Each structure stands twice: as C-alpha cells, then as structure tokens.
Amino acid sequence: MLPKIFVQIASYRDPELVPTIRDCISKAKYADRLTFGICWQRDETESLDEFVNDGRFRVIDVPWNQSKGLCWARSLIQKLWSGEEYTLQLDSHHRFIQNWDEELIEMMKLTGSEKPIVGSYAGMYDPVGNKLLNKEPYMMVANHFTLGGTILFFPRAIHGWESLTKPVPARFVSGHFYFTIGKHCEEYKYDPNIYFAGDEISLSIRSFTLGYDLFHPHKIVIWHEYTRKDRVKHWDDFNEKNVQDKLVDMPWYLMDDNSKRRLRHMLQEEDNGIDLGEYGLGNVRTHSDYENYAGINFKHRKLHPKTLDGTFPPINDTSNWHLLENDPVYYEFKVNIPKTDNFKMIYIGVEDVSGNVLHRVDLTYYVDVLTLQFESNKKPHKWVYWPVDLNDNWYNRIDTVLTNSL
C-alpha cells in the first residue's frame, strides 16, 4: 500500500490558503493518500466550505482574535497526526511542482538516513498570475544573531545545483517547508509558548538532538510567497488598541518577549531558570554536538566563518574559534543609480563573494548617486540594484563588482 502524507498548515487570515490547498492536491501524484491538518485562524470573510465534506481534512477552527501565535497553532496541528508515514509542514501560501509527493519521498530515500528532514526556504512565487519566480533550490545561510538571541537566516541558491543528484547536508530547518517521517509530529513537540521568531533554530537544534539528519533539497519542489503583501499579520492585529478594545488579550510584543526568554534558555545562551519539560533538547545528540556540526557558539553568539560562508556541514572545528576577535571594518562606497521611473522601491544591496548581504538600503525616491556607509566582518564584493515596480514586481536586477572603498 502506498504511504500517506500528513500535510500541516497553520493559516492566519490568509487569502492564499484555499489556492494553496488546491494546488497541493492537483499537483500530487497520489492525492488520495494526502491528509490535511489545518489550524484555521480566520476572520468572517474566509470559507473552507469546499473541503468540509472531504474526509482527508482535519480542521481546527479558531477565530483570529483567539490565536496565540505561530508555534501555538503548529502545536495543535501536530495532535491531529494519525500515524501517516510522512509529514509535510507548510505555511498557507505555496505552489508545487507536479508529483511533488513522489519527488519528496524519493529524496528521503536518497539521503541514506533513517531519520532525514528534507527542507529549506522554498522558491518564490507571485500569486498574481501564479508566477513562479525562480527554478534554483535554496539553502539556508546564517547572517547574524539578533538582539533577541535567535539567528537571522536568508536563502541562497545552492552552488552547482544543476549537477546534483541527491539532497545536500543542512544545518537549519525551515518552518515553512520541511518533509520528514510522520513520527516527527510525536517526537518533536512544538513549544506553544514560542511566538514566531526562533521557530526555525528551535526546529533545527531540537530535531538534530532527537536524532534527525538535516538536508536541503537538491532541486526545487515548492514555492513560497515571501512578501506578505495583502495579508494581515498576527502582530498587526495583536496591538495595544485591540487590547484596549478587548478584542485581544495581549499585545504581540509581550508574547514575543516571553517566547525569546524561553528560546535563549533552550539554546543555552543564558540561564533563565525555565523548566522546558517536553519542549527541550533530545537525548540522541547533545547541544555541543549541534554546535560543532553547525559551526555555532550560542553562549558567545558567534557564527563560524564557514557557517557564514554557507559551507555545508559538518564544521567540527574544536578550536576556540569563537573567542577570536574579528573586528568589523568600515566601508564607504559611492554608487551611481541607473535612471529609474515608475517604481515603488529600489533595493540597493552590498554582497560578499558568496552572496551574503552585508548592507541594504531601500530607496523610495530616486537619487542619481548614493553613498553607502557600513561596517562588516566580511569583504564587500559587489553592489546590487534591483527595483520594484508599482505592481510590486521585481525587475531588471543589475550586479556590479565594487572597486576600492572611498
């Protein structure tokens, strides 16, 4: 008998939920083997009527103002797992390749691992016209630690992906796209107290210490809508005014503050005296095992140079690399901006040779010359001009190698 896939979707007031479900079903080779667990945090304009009599769907219906955040929703969804052999976790705004289900199951086999997680930041799509904006698979690259103690990631195309034949080792797991064995729903219990930020580093280290091996897909399988355009976000609703009007119980930033204290404790950045219980690390591998594998030191909030460069793990540098001083260098460049008309925004970015973003400016009005001033631990290689038109479409990207700093 063919295996079943449990598709987990946490949706918050998202007009793309229904199109995502439709595309997921229509592009699956074995759509009858899919089951859906959905935490539907909705308003009065939304409807799932077309799926109400479909036995594949298990839906938790939550009025938007009763939501308690992303990981709270995902913790509820996990409890709907009913023994399906595989699970796919998504957001609620995606598109899929044809036969995505067969492709992902085959990738799991290609890893050679008994407990693989295959996932990453998905490709990009535009809901307007269902435009798929790229074909290269992404890896997740760490950029820096945030003040709150989590790590900021960004997507980067996997070098040489065209010649790859199997998934590549990863150090991070994406919350909006991962595929693994169904048992993960039971072994990795989502901490409902994590609000939003920190979901992915928690997924990464906790899954790793539970004995899961992390991989990025070697070809694109799923696309994601990144801009959040035309969608209400949880933090938009959970504001001081709605608290005063008694529409919601707590502002988002208090949930976020409590969440990050738990996260920093779990990551061992600081000791907050919190009993994490079943939401702590696993016992197959250790916290130190993950740090060595990923090239991260949480206590000192340092990222190994190879981690910053996106070198595939493991790193396994047992020296005191995290104690070495690497003072940032001040850079200043003057760049000429191409004449641009009818734009909403112009992205100006500075990247190193590996494509890491070192500095960014978003222009909302035109200037012909711009001076870029910033500090960085990495050497700048090029600057990027990339405008967005009035319909929110990116176009005419130009990469220019930098000459000497001013």
Strand order of the largest sheet: 3-2-1-4-12-6-13-11
The CATH architecture of the largest domain comes to Alpha-Beta Complex
Fraction in beta strands? 25-35%
Please, how many domains?
2
- The name of the CATH topology of the largest domain is Spore Coat Polysaccharide Biosynthesis Protein SpsA, Chain A
The number of distinct helices, counting runs of at least 4 residues, comes to: 10
- The CATH top-level class label of the largest domain: Alpha Beta
> What's the β-strand tally?
22
Classification by helices and strands? alpha+beta
Uncertain runs with pLDDT below 50, 5 residues or more? none
Largest sheet: 8 strands, mixed
**What general outline do the C-alpha atoms trace?**
globular
- The quaternary organization reads as single chain
Mind telling me the C-alpha Rg? Answer: 22 Å
Give the overall average pLDDT. Answer: 94
Distance between the termini: 67 Å
Verbal overview:
The protein is built from ten helices and 22 strands. With 406 residues, it is an alpha+beta fold. The chain folds into two domains: 322 residues, Spore Coat Polysaccharide Biosynthesis Protein SpsA, Chain A; 73 residues, Immunoglobulin-like, CATH 2.60.40. The protein has an eight-stranded mixed beta sheet with strand order 3-2-1-4-12-6-13-11, with helices on both faces. Strands 5-14-7-8 form a four-stranded mixed beta sheet. Strands 19-18-21-22 form a four-stranded antiparallel beta sheet, with no helix packed on it.
